[in-house]
Amino acid sequence: MSTTGKEPAAAPAKKRLTTSAMIASIAAEGQATRPAPFGHALVELAKRDERIVGLTADLGKYTDLHIFARAFPDRFYQMGMAEQLLMSTAAGLAREGFVPFATTYAVFAARRAYDFIAMAIAEEKLPVKIACALPGLTTGYGPSHQATDDIAIFRAMPDITIVDPCDALDIEQAVPAIAAHDGPVYLRLLRGQVPAVLDAYDYSFELGKAKVLREGGDVLFISSGILTMRALEAARALEGDGIRAAVLHSPTIKPLDVATILAEVDRAGRLVVVAENHSRIGGLGEAVATALLANGRAPRFRHIALPDAFLDAGALPTLHDRYGISTDRIVERTKGWLEED
Amino acid sequence: MTTETATENPALLANVSLAERAYRIRRNAVLMGEVQGQGYVGQALGIADVLAVAYFHALRYRPDDPRWEGRDRFLLSIGHYAIALYAALIEAGIVPEDELETYGCDDSRLPMSGMASYTPGMEITGGSLGHGLGIAVGMALGLKRKGSDRFVFNLMSDGELGEGSTWEAAMGAAHHRLGNLVNLVDFNNQQADGPSRDMLSAEPVTDKFAAFGWHVQRVDGNDVEAVRAAFDTAMAVRDDRPRAIVFDTKMGKGVPFLESREVTHFIRVEANEWALALQALEQGRPA
């Protein structure tokens, strides 16, 4: 007998969606993917750059760093479940001339190790590359593992570059680019079987550059990370309804490519929709809005982002629908905004 | 080791005793304190003997090339001890003596809390306590990767033993067999709110380091000969354990009226007392 007045729901007859294990892919069923693009790209880079070393805090397998560890066992440091030590050690190795890639989950870097990244790495402008899995809402494990606040946290940290790649190609090209950048970088990592989306476009990753992936005269999506993948899918779906949507992919969140964003916003009177896999507070949306207002632009502006809340646990497709970042919800919301005219 | 030190650092060829070096470091610190009318002079007076042995016996460095690859690294985790390290860097010829009067002033290279980008010879930015030992782990790993035989010294306070990151680093140093890392703990039993043992007691501190897999010694940090012997022992250990030396020191050492002052974390010194402090140091100066 329940004393709370809440009875557990009866088990439905059909197969339920389940919370996938963290090692599972964010790719949709049947979607083209490539395995461990981060790990393989780092191995390729390390073959020609002896300064590259890899460190993790007991999450090598879950950040694809195990690929690097197998290829270069003597350049890999297992720091154990000690994220403060992970970041401090990376800082020390950078001081001695190495280019460390330090991996963990985004929540642990942004929340637990913040002071160590701020003072030992960023304040010293050291070339430590912090690559973190499970950015935004890419796990159903609940708030302990959902880094819905990581961009907000790192945007407030001076001198650190923030990269939010869309897919396997973005990651493969971002790895050498961020290594070549002489300063700290925070990379939002997609791991495991990572969708291969951008091969179909005339696109290459350039640090600090936003790029138009698709043209369209009615809507301008400005997006990063996996929300660029969703924006492209939404744009295709909208096309069926005669709505033409452009997609401007901005994988570098900081420093933001303000010039390209202004130039695209200035073309035609499109509805501007910023789409991001992050809390609506402190992420790409606020960065774009600030840049637009500061430069005298006030287009019709809407924001697709996660709510300012600790999110539910559950299956990712359920959660993406619930919080409005699934392709179907993006299509539905965009049409609604256009109808407001 | 001593011979190598002498050949690599001409400043060490001067026939000056370690006790005299410690006196000069204390004097520099008091002169800097006078510039601000305040400061962490008590800590500087307490740690001066350790710094004298570090910079004039143990460390290999080139005063005119603070970034020389062949140097031993000396990390100041306790940023507010900057006044003490500046005093030593001036005595070592790494920082010009005439900068002493800029301590803590606008646009000075000698800010109140030590930062790497400001000061020659300052290896890291300390101040957010509990950072130094972890960075030392990374630098020690880096030196080993490069095949260097140089040491990394980290100077920390007893208060920093309360930071969890210190113990992450202590585990990491032992796990990675960093025999090239020497952790120097200034145990003056004085923190911001009172005696360290009443805050979050780290005792028995030597047992803790030993249990973490370290070679550990505990000596009187104001006995120059004991300090020198401890450095020699730490650098000569024949296995790959990281090494800790816990120095029991006295805040305000060398200036009796400061030694006995009750609250000494951030020492209050009246305007007329700076000259008295210098006189007290002069009276205790080695013959």
UniProtKB/TrEMBL annotation, chain A:
Pfam families: Transket_pyr (PF02779), Transketolase_C (PF02780). PANTHER family: PYRUVATE DEHYDROGENASE E1 COMPONENT, TRANSKETOLASE-LIKE PYRIMIDINE-BINDING DOMAIN-CONTAINING PROTEIN. This is Transketolase. Residues 32-196 form the Transketolase-like pyrimidine-binding domain. Gene3D superfamilies: 3.40.50.920, 3.40.50.970.
Automatic annotation (TrEMBL), chain B:
Belongs to the transketolase family. This is Transketolase. InterPro entries: THDP-binding, Transketolase_N. Its cofactor is thiamine diphosphate. The keyword tRNA-binding does not apply. It holds the Pfam family Transketolase_N. Coiled coil: none annotated. Gene3D superfamilies: 3.40.50.970. The chain crosses the membrane at residues 40-61, 73-94, 124-143. Residues 33-275 form the Transketolase N-terminal domain. It comes from the Bacteria. The keyword Transmembrane applies. Keywords: Membrane, Thiamine pyrophosphate, Transmembrane, Transmembrane helix.
